[in-house]
Amino acid sequence: MTMQNPSDVPPSEPGPDSGDRAVLARPPRKSASPGALIAMAVVMALLATALWERYRPQPKELVDWRANLAAAQVEAIKENKPLLMVFTANWCPTCQSMKHSTFADAEAVKKLDQTCVPVQIDFDTQTQLVDKYNVQAIPALLIVDPKDGHVIQRDNESVMGPGEFETWLGNLSHVSATN
Predict the structure, then answer these.
(1) d(CA 141, CA 107)
(2) With 0-12 CB in 10 A as exposed, 13-18 as middle and 19+ as buried, what is 76?
(3) Residues near 101 by beta carbon (within 8 Å), at least 6 away in sequence
(4) Rounded CA separation 133/151 (Å)
(5) What separation in angstroms does the CA of 135 have from each of 4, 82, 113, 125, 156?
(6) pLDDT of the chain along its 179 residues, tens only?
(7) For the chain, which domains are there?
(8) Strand pairing partners for 88?
(9) β-pairing, 151-156 with 140-144?
(10) Is the dihedral of CA 53, 93, 108, 120 positive or negative?
(11) Are strands 151-156 and 117-122 parallel, antiparallel or unpaired?
């Protein structure tokens, strides 16, 4: 007697007991174990969290960055303020974190506007400034005298929250850039 593969056997023909329909044999369905269901739920929750963090609406940056360093220097001298030079890059997650937290906080930006003239420096394209100020990592925040380019205060590669940033600005070791 030759055994046939079950997938090669045609469905049975309708018979008197089948109610004019073919009877197909289905394998028994296995249910997932509780552990597998929990693992799938955890994976789905992690995936949902990752997608939310990636695509959630971000607070809008409020800083009025000056793009032209020479014009910012003239403005700073005129207003008797130092420059805040922030070295950053689009690919830097720490920089983006500050952009959407510290630089999106109304009180921190108000303190910045009262204290300094902000200039954003692109780490990748403004390499002469990166070299001149010996910026090794980003974000790098430098308070600079607009007259001579002397660094008054600096913070390298740390993420400051809004309150910490306000305190850092308040710790300037001088009253104005023209003293």
Answers:
(1) 18
(2) buried
(3) 59, 159, 161, 162
(4) 8
(5) 75, 19, 24, 13, 8
(6) 555 555 555 555 555 555 556 667 777 777 778 888 888 888 888 888 777 666 766 678 889 999 899 999 999 999 999 999 999 999 999 998 899 999 999 999 999 999 999 999 999 999 999 999 999 999 999 999 999 999 999 988 678 899 999 999 988 754 444 44
(7) 69-170 (3.40.30.10)
(8) 122
(9) antiparallel
(10) negative
(11) unpaired
Nearest of 59, 171, 68 to residue 118 by alpha carbon: 68
Distance of alpha carbon 179 from alpha carbon 177, whole angstroms: 6
Please answer whether residues 99 and 160 qualify as being in contact, where contact means their C-beta atoms are separated by less than 8 angstroms: no
CA angle 90, 118, 103 (to 5 degrees): 55
79 — alpha (psi -120 to 50), left (phi > 0) or beta?
Answer: alpha
CB atoms within 10 A of CB 119: 24
State both tokens at 30.
Answer: 């296995």
pTM for this structure? Answer: 0.65
* 3-class SS of residue 121: strand
Evaluate whether 143 touches 82 at the Cβ level (below 8 Å).
Answer: yes
